[in-house]
Every structure is written in structure tokens, then in C-alpha cells.
Amino acid sequence: MNGRVIADRYELATVIGQGGMGQVWTAYDRRLDRRVAVKLLRPDRMAGTEGADEMRRRFVRECRVTAQVDHRGLVTVHDAGSDGEELYLVMQYVEGADLADHLAENDPYPWPWAVSVAAQLCSVLSAVHAVPIVHRDLKPRNVMVRPDGSVLVLDLGVASVLDTDTTRLTRTGSPIGSPAYMAPEQAMGGAVGPYTDLYALGVLLHELLVGEVPFAGSTALGVLHRHLYEPPVPVRQLRPEVPRPLEELVLRLMAKDPLHRLADAQEAYQALAPLLPLPGTTTGGAAGPALGPMNPTRPFLLPHAPWPDRAATAAQPAPVPATALLGPPPEAPSGPDVAEAVEEVKRLLDQGGITQAVDLLGSILPAAAAEHGERSTVVRTLRRQYAATLMDDGQYRRALPELRHLAEDYAMESGPQAARRVLRFQYDAAQCLEQLGEAVAALAEYRALLPRFEGYPDDPTTPLDIRRRIGHLLLSLGDRQAAHDTLVALLHDAERLHGPHHPLPAEIRHTLQWLGQVRA
């Protein structure tokens, strides 16, 4: 027992996990009399390090974004904040075993179990990709099997909202993730997207069916080289009883080129659905007893059945709806209230309340448009702030149409200032496409924007950033030669503009070094 109390509420008990961001503890919530899990950012990872602010930003982003996703296959976030010099994230406490241990205890793993696990993971991935979040480290140690057979995905900490950082390498020049489950584009330091998690799902499914990962090696570089250049062994060569459609699905998920994989997690689920056990069966056949603990087929054999199987306990009071606790939603301000709401938005942004600011801006816009007119200075200013705040909040799917609207609006005007605004909105829209995983569309837009930005000699940095993004997108699409040529030319120009010790040339050298090592 630790005995330390976080935020005068959560009493730490025992360490149950270690990760790149810190430790995970079992803890006791004194206020609500329940067990919880508390994730702490270790002080030694923050104090006196160059990346302390970046680690703090990543941790805060993890708290905010994880809380946005509502899915039964994700751990629920209860609370987050700071305690002294540490940051904490409070989550539900989950009983069960991680998938790696579950596989080891059930060797060989029945193929219906593998199908059931993969189908549940597809449901989770579909939800997180819609945010959009890319997990980037999907593996058995980050998956939990609960006693009722349901599956939960853990640790979105190395995942992060798709932002400008997701296409970059770490400061050591290595990509984030686990080499055994890493997609080729991720290994090359290219742009990641939902297709990256689909590759990891294919590796995980191969491991469940065969008992080992498809590519192993004595060094991380050797493993990544095999991911890039070697085809996986078809699972039926090792386990002939596996259905042929399941083998074909694994091979499609593990295609080297992201464009050759399935379109999304929904399509992967649809491919798995015909192989799932039928509801109402009392035994799982090849899947084993349906009512045993930690049987992944159980949610499909007995949908929504209580666990454990026993008479229901005494009825509990009906929960109070969240809307009753929060009160009615605020009405859209009108008249002089618009100005007051603008001041409130500024206050929220100063205090880091980005999500609240987004909601308030969204409610202001209709009233402001009705009062001042859609193309008024007030409404345009609010709409620009709204789009920028949506991007800051990681809500790229909502930001994209706002940016398109702004670009079309300003394109109706003449003059150099309006043209510059249109260009900037189109650039932000291309970034949204990139962060949403639409690599082909983003690449086309960046290429169209580049010569137009190069026509403004007073802004030499934006063309360099666009070229960097083009290089990483080419990597993600498998065109390594074009990416290499793009980055080599970019390195020369970046060093000439910024000098050799600037972060941008340093990052490009890391990527080129990694690219050269893997190709060699």
C-alpha cells in the first residue's frame, strides 16, 4: 500500500503498469467509495528536461481527447488534473487479463476467439478514428479481456490527436510504437492514419491465430526491415483449420501499401461478421464453452447477458440523466450578449478551456449572423476563431467545412489581403485532410498550394513546411524514392534559411538517416 492521496481524494495503492508517460496505480476514490486506476506523469520525466513542456502538453491532450470518446471498448475517464508537480488521469478500474497473457494461457488460441477479439477491436477503432485519433501502438499488452469476454483497448497515451506532431519522429530519430506491430509507413516516419492501426490489427490477428508475430528479429531495425520488404506467411500454412476468408483478411490488413488495405475498421468488421459465432448457442464448438470466464465469443453467443450468470441483484435507483445535472443547454446569445460571450471565449481560451470555447463559439455564430449579417466583420472574425479553435481542439472533421466556407467567402473579394487569407484557409484545410488520414487528397492540395505560397517571398517558412508534409505523405503512401528526393532538396533549403542546428533540418536529417538505414 502506498498511502499517498492525490488531489485530496484518490488514495494510491499498488502499481499495476509502467509506460512512457508514467505509472498506473490502483487507487481508492474516497468521495465515491470505489476503486479506480490513476495514471501519473513521473516527476523525473518532467523536471530538468528539454521536453517537459511537450510531455505536459501530450498528457493534457491525452486526458481531454480520451474523455471525448464514448465507447464500451474504451476505459472510461473519470477525472484529470494536477497535484503538485504531477499530472494525473483517473480512469475506471478494470478486472481481467491483458490479451498477451490470455493468449499464453489459451495456446493454441481457438480461431473463433481470434475473430471475436478482432471484431470487438474493429468497433473500438471505428470510434476512435472518427475523432480522429490514431492509436499507433495497438498490441496485445494494450488490450484487456474482461471476465465476461468483452475487450477493452488501453492506453491512448502514445496515441494522440492527429496533429502536426503525428508525422514526426521522436527526438531520438525513432518512430513511436512497437516494432513488432508497426506499419511500414510508421516505421519510415511517414504520416500515420487509421490505415496504420489496421495494419497493427492484422499483425495482432496473425499472432492470435499462429501464436507468434509474423516478423521477429534480434534488433528493432531488423524487424522493421522485414515489415517493409517481406510478405507475411499465410496463416493457413501454419494452421490449416483457419477459414480461408480469415487468412485473406489478415493478408489485406497487412498490405505494405496503405492504399491496398481495407478502407476502414467498419469494412474489417464486415469481413469478420460472417465468421462470428451465432447468438443463442450454448456451447462455442471450436470456441470452447460459451459460459466460461474470459471467453471472447461470449458477447456474440449471449449478447447483453449478465455476468456472472446469476439472478439480478436488488434494483438500483435509476441514474440521473447528465442533462439534469448540467442544467438546460445555454441559449444562443443575441444582441449585446454576443459581446459578452466573446469576452467569455477569450477568458476560456486564456485558461485552456478549449472545448468550452468551441461550444460557446458555435452557439454565438447563428445569433451574430442574424444580428450583423453573414459576411459582416463580426461574423467573419468569430468564424475564423471558431475554425482555429476547432483545430486547436483536435476536431479536424468539424474544422474542415468551416475552413472551406471561409475560403469560398473571401474568394469573392479582390485584393492581395483577401487572396492571402484564402490561401491560408486552404492550407489549414489541407492540414485537416492530412490529420483525418486522407493522404492522397492532402498530398494533392499541398502540391497545388506550394507554388502559390512560393510566390510570397516575405513568407519563406510556410513553403518549407508544405514540402516537409509532402515528403512525409509520400512516405506514408509508399513512394520512398520520391520522399527521399523531396526531403534531400528540402534539407538543403532549410539549412540555407535556418542554419544546420535549427529543429527543422535536424528533423529532416533524422528522417533521411532512418530512411537510409532501413533501405540499406
TrEMBL record:
EC number: 2.7.11.1
Gene3D superfamilies hit by this protein: Phosphorylase Kinase, domain 1, Tetratricopeptide repeat domain, Transferase(Phosphotransferase) domain 1
Keyword Nucleotide-binding in annotation: yes
Alphabetized UniProt keyword annotations: ATP-binding, Kinase, Nucleotide-binding, Serine/threonine-protein kinase, Transferase
GO molecular function terms listed in the Swiss-Prot or TrEMBL record: ATP binding; protein serine/threonine kinase activity
Keyword Nucleotide-binding (UniProt): yes
Enzyme class, broadest EC rank: transferase
Domain of life of the organism encoding this protein: Bacteria
Positions bound to ATP: K39
Domain Protein kinase: from-to ranges: 10-276
Cross-referenced PANTHER family: MITOGEN-ACTIVATED PROTEIN KINASE KINASE KINASE 20-RELATED (PTHR43289), SERINE_THREONINE-PROTEIN KINASE NEKL-3 (PTHR43289:SF6)
This protein's name: non-specific serine/threonine protein kinase
